[in-house]
Design goal:
Length: 443
């Protein structure tokens, strides 16, 4: 028997835009007339790619188009992509909330879905009643739910409110109970959308740990959608990247996340604001340019790990202001902030100069060689003052660090975001050192 538990073949979903109900009877009749004559749906030909950033004359848009993939039993699949890429539509089709326009899905086993706050809950019923209601929807018998009930309540940490109608729950309490029900009532497939972001940090960690246990120890399948790349990297083994309703990449989660971040930030090492757009900044300071260069003069976007990296930030100070600070966040590929740097760390009187004499200034930060591990990095640049007036330009530039290639391969294959070469002292001992509990000779 095959281990494939979900098989999606050429799934497409076409949506009609505009006001619901306007002209639908005419369109439905047109579809029916084509169908009885054995012809293709006429509106399938005029649907356009789902690009929310452009205006179109078409009333139809493909939320998904020709999506095909397979998921194995016990696999944790991360589905990522920008807003409007089709992630939620795909999960709704898999959960049978909506039907695909074309294509076929084969699923083995029961599905528990957590697509939005309160999914599957009746707001008039108590938390206790909703646990049994959700269990019944999943096809569980009452004695099975009874056996899991205490465990569900303990995990959700809403025992005090379990006999209160859920319409009086906060969104965080809703999610706590909904996830506890979905994870503990033993569905073969668990589908979780971005809804976990509503919970607090402690509960998010708890949920991620539970999903890992569900997949690794219980052999169940998890489909996880999130914009938190650190969580996706931690939880998932494989990934699916959606772009404008189509699959851009499916494979190892690390490569999928890297491609997503690269498509979102590019691999440009220089940023110059578009003169046709409003300036980047505020009434105190405007960003003129940001560039990343190698300490050896290389321009990237790829730098070897043994090369220092220079980040040059050029700004125009419009008016005298004390305490102006220009700096950046360095992000790793999963969005984690590696460190924050600010030019107020410099000991050169630049702050006083800017406070007295508005003009153009360039602040240069040097990231030491051998500090960053291999991988992709991006820079969010910005400025602030003690009186507020902050601005940030997210992911303005990005670059890659690759192994040196001239050193021992172990030196360029260390885990972690940074791999600094720290100072060590190694001394040879000539005497036999012993421990009263466990004598150990030193050679």
């Amino acid at each position: 028997m095959s281990d494939t538990i979900i098989k999606v073949e050429n799934i497409s979903k076409l949506y009609r835009l505009g006001e619901v109900g306007t002209g639908t009877l005419r369109h439905d009749f047109n579809r029916w007339w084509h169908k009885v004559r054995g012809k293709e749906d006429p509106y399938l030909k005029i649907g356009q790619v789902n690009d929310r950033s452009i205006k179109s004359d078409s009333d139809y848009a493909w939320a998904l188009q020709d999506v095909s993939f397979e998921v194995k039993r016990g696999e944790v699949l991360g589905i990522i992509g920008r807003n409007g890429a089709g992630k939620s539509t795909l999960l709704k089709i898999l959960s049978r909330v909506t039907m695909p326009t074309a294509g076929e899905i084969k699923i083995k086993g029961r599905i528990a879905s957590l697509l939005e706050v309160g999914t599957g809950f009746n707001p008039e019923l108590t938390g206790r009643d909703n646990i049994y209601l959700n269990g019944a929807i999943l096809g569980m018998r009452k004695r099975e739910i009874d056996r899991k009930f205490d465990e569900i309540v303990a995990f959700s940490e809403v025992e005090r409110y379990i006999d209160t109608p859920v319409k009086r729950y906060s969104s965080g309490m809703y999610v706590r109970l909904a996830f506890a029900v979905a994870a503990h009532l033993e569905p073969e497939i668990l589908i979780v959308d971005e809804v976990l972001a509503v919970g607090d940090m402690e509960f998010q960690k708890k949920c991620l740990g539970k999903m890992q246990d569900v997949a690794a120890k219980e052999g169940r399948t998890v489909l996880f959608v999130s914009h938190n790349m650190a969580a996706v990297n931690r939880l998932c083994q494989t990934g699916l990247l959606l772009e404008k309703g189509s699959i851009a990449l499916c494979g190892n989660i690390s490569s999928v996340v890297a491609k997503y971040l690269q498509s979102d930030t590019g691999d440009k090492t220089q940023f110059v604001p578009d003169p046709a757009k409003p300036p980047v900044g505020n009434d105190t300071v405007i960003l003129l340019a940001l560039a990343v260069k190698g300490g050896d003069g290389s321009v990237g976007p790829t730098f070897v790990s043994s090369t220092a990296i220079k980040a040059e930030i050029t700004c125009r100070v419009l008016k005298a202001v004390r305490g102006l600070r220009v700096g950046f966040h360095l992000h790793s590929a999963d969005g984690t902030i590696v460190f924050n740097a600010a030019d107020t760390d410099a000991d050169g009187g630049l702050e006083d100069e800017r406070a007295c004499h508005p003009g153009v200034y360039t602040s240069t930060c040097v990231i030491p060689e051998g500090l960053l591990n291999r991988g992709q990095y991006s820079i969010t640049v910005g400025s602030d003052t003690p009186m507020g007036g902050n601005f940030y330009c997210e992911n303005a530039v990005s670059f890659f660090i690759v192994p040196d290639g001239t050193r021992d391969s172990r030196e360029d294959n260390r885990p972690g975001i940074v791999c600094p070469r720290l100072s060590w002292e190694i001394a040879r001992k000539t005497e036999l050192e012993t421990d009263d509990r466990n004598p150990v000779p030193v050679h």
